[in-house]
């Protein structure tokens, strides 16, 4: 029976890099994969999964209404061996259930990669469901930007470098906007826990 995996971490732990490496391993053996990337809040996404170290691959954009199970069932072939999803925190609860059905009913492994919590320390909808029903949970680790402890949380900075504790849950940005920190520094910087 195929497994349903969730690879989670904070920012800068190499989630996209790990996904792209896994995809490369399948392709290297002439095995087909499907790569998906959730589109977020009607923001004009590019359909590219890109790692901070420069490797990239085209993916299928999936909005909140996209049905992963139906799409995969229509595009299944004997050579389809894995479904990979980047930014899985942005999935809906229903979409996570669809992905689990791909593993259970179509016998195709599904590997989701994403953040566990947002900048307030709260679980994303997709991550909450993935943590609940995935067969295997894999934590990808990185270190706190303020010390050498394991980073488990993310803080968001405004344009002046001030830590934000309120605002839109989803705001796309990179290292200039988000910093990975340990729980101790998250508490010190946000007073949210």
Structural write-up:
The protein has 193 residues and is an alpha/beta fold. A six-stranded parallel β-sheet has the order 5-2-6-7-1-8, with helices on both faces. The protein has a three-stranded antiparallel β-sheet with strand order 10-9-11. It has a two-stranded antiparallel sheet with strand order 3-4. Helix content is 26%, strand content 25%. The protein has five helices and eleven strands, in the order βαββββαβαβαββββα.
- Encode the helix/strand succession as letters: EHEEEEHEHEHEEEEH
Q: Would you identify the regions where 5 or more consecutive residues have pLDDT less than 50?
A: none
Category from helices, strands and their pairing: alpha/beta
Largest sheet: 6 strands, parallel
How many distinct helices?
5
Task: Give me the oligomer status.
Answer: single chain
Overall geometry comes to: elongated
How much of the sequence lies in strands comes to 25-35%
The termini sit apart by 40 Å
Tally of DSSP β-strands: 11
Task: Please state how the strands of the largest beta sheet are arranged side by side.
Answer: 5-2-6-7-1-8
- Cα gyration radius (Å): 17 Å
Fraction in helix: 25-40%
The pLDDT mean sits at 94
Short description:
By secondary structure, this protein is α/β, with parallel strands linked by helices. The protein has five helices and eleven strands, in the order βαββββαβαβαββββα. The strands form three sheets. A six-stranded parallel beta sheet has the order 5-2-6-7-1-8, sandwiched between helices.
């Amino acid at each position: 029976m195929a497994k349903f995996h969730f690879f989670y971490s904070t920012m800068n732990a190499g989630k996209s890099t790990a996904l792209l490496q896994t995809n490369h391993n399948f392709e290297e053996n002439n095995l087909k994969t499907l790569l998906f990337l959730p589109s977020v809040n009607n923001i004009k996404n590019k359909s590219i999964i890109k790692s901070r170290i420069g490797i990239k691959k085209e993916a299928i954009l999936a909005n909140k209404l996209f049905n992963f199970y139906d799409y995969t069932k229509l595009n299944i072939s004997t050579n389809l061996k894995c479904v990979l999803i980047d930014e899985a925190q942005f999935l809906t609860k229903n979409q996570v259930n669809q992905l689990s059905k791909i593993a259970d009913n179509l016998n195709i492994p599904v590997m989701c990669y994403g953040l566990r919590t947002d900048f307030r320390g709260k679980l994303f909808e997709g991550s909450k469901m993935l943590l609940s029903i995935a067969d295997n949970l894999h934590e990808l680790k990185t270190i706190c930007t303020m010390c050498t402890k394991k980073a488990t949380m993310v803080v968001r900075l405004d344009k002046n470098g001030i830590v934000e504790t309120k605002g839109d849950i989803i705001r796309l940005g990179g290292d200039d906007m988000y910093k990975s920190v340990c729980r101790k520094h998250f508490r010190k910087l946000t007073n949210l826990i």
